[in-house]
Amino acid sequence: MDRTPQDLAEALVASFGDAGYGRVEPPVLQPADVFLDLSGEDIRARMFVTMDAAGHEWALRPEYTIPVARAYLASPGAAEPAALSYGGPVFRLRAGESGEFWQAGIESYGRPDAEAADAEVLGIAVEAVSALGLRKPEIRLGDVGLFTALLDALALPPVRARQLRRAYAQGQLAAALTQDFSVASAVGGEHAGLLRAVQGQDPKAARAFVEDVLNIAGISTVGGRSAAEIAERFLARAEADADGGVSAEAIAVLKRFAAIAGDPDAASAQIRKLAGEAGLDIAPVLDSFDARTGFIAARGVDVGAVAFSAAFGRNLDYYTGVVFEIRDGSKADAKPIVGGGRYDRLLQTLGASHPIPAVGCSVWLDRLAGALA
Q: What is the CATH classification number for the domain harbouring 301?
């Protein structure tokens, strides 16, 4: 008999409980601004948002990571490490599909042994979906922290680095590296006059000017962003134009990096070689990468079968370290069934007094049900 997403949620939460992850149930209704500020553009554009009588915007939770983090920070045990699980509906606009679907997952907070925690979350996810009947789980791995370390070592202008990090998260790094990073290219020649008008102005006055232009044009929101947020991004692009470009040498290093793929051990060796030839010191991050690979292997995962790609990111703005997906390896072009990663800055952004290490993952239960049918 086919299992429903609800059935799978209960089975997974029970499995997570056996691994030491206690269940939490954050509210369905969440403050919308948290997701608008911290989630990726893909989620922001597909949220269900409403406004209360006081003018506050609320969203049906579009994912669980932020609500679970908020629940943890509001709990009496927020100063201590925690291992939490969840299962229930989330809500996003989806073309041709229901806007309500189910997820289950785990979040690990406060562990100082980051590499072991990463491996544990990945290992639990693989074990859980395999136990339910996914016969050929295919693991795809990336590392936001490794890419960030490379950008820092290259000492790129801050705005250029932000542009590349955004492209990386969207899976568009290779394409971005072939493009002109000038503002005219980024926003279109029709905006050149507006750019000239704001360049050199006081930032506050320039921001107000761009907001006025957007409001006169009748543009209030685009992709979930307010006119003020659009103005901020426009001014950032103007700043990028003044900052200067990325050198041909740096672009060449980034292109070589983006092309690296294979199992984690082979990829690490290639990245070390690239860093050595380019005179870049990213050894501490690579040492952490290798330690994590060892912990993954210790959990019984065949690391030789793990597909690492240096250009692989996930379209959520809060990731800071390892990112991963698990797919049904028996089907070509299968969508991710599990997605997760490390997000060490999110909890402080949400109000914690200091950075709290965090890593977790979510299972798309409608996709898992389809794979098991």
A: 3.30.930.10
Query: Which pLDDT belongs to residue 364?
Result: 97
Mean pLDDT of 301-307: 97
Q: Pick the residue with more confidence: 216 or 67?
A: 67
Same domain? 272 vs 336? yes
Is there a binding annotation on residue 21?
A: no
Query: Which residue's entry shows tokens 């562990």?
Result: 111
92 is known to lie in a ligand binding site: yes
Give residue-wise pLDDT tens across range 82-126: 999 999 999 999 888 889 999 999 999 999 999 999 999 999 999
The answer to whether 44 and 66 are in contact (CB under 8 A) is no
Q: How many CA atoms lie within 13 A of 129 on its CB side?
A: 36
Give, as one character, the DSSP assignment of residue 190.
Answer: G
267 and 291, same structural domain? yes
Please state, in angstroms and rounded to a whole number, the distance separating the CA atoms of residues 343 and 274: 26
The last residue of a domain, from among 243, 273, 288: 243
Task: Decide: helix, strand or coil at residue 363.
Answer: strand
Q: CB-based burial of residue 125 (10 Å sphere; 0-12 exposed, 13-18 middle, 19+ buried)? A: buried
If you average pLDDT over residues 360-371, what whole number do you get? 97
Between residues 166 and 218, which one has the greater pLDDT? 166
Q: Do 43 and 189 belong to one domain?
A: no
Q: How many domains, in total, are found in the chain? A: 2
Q: What is the pLDDT of residues 29-40, one digit of tens each?
A: 999 999 988 876
Question: Whole-angstrom Cα distance, residue 36 to residue 69?
Answer: 16
Residue 343 among known ligand-binding residues: no
C-alpha dihedral over 203, 208, 213, 217, to 10 degrees?
130
User: Do the annotations mark residue 318 as ligand-binding?
Assistant: yes
Expressed in angstroms, the distance from the first to the final Cα of the chain is: 9
- HSE (CB half, 13 Å, CA atoms) of 298? 12
* Rounded distance between C-alpha atoms, residue 13 and residue 23, angstroms: 7
- The answer to the question of whether 72 is labelled as a binding residue is no
For residue 127, say whether it is annotated as part of any ligand binding site.
no
Residues facing 108 on adjacent strands:
83, 359
65 labeled part of a ligand binding site = yes
314 is in an annotated binding site: yes
Residues 14, 71, single domain; the answer is yes
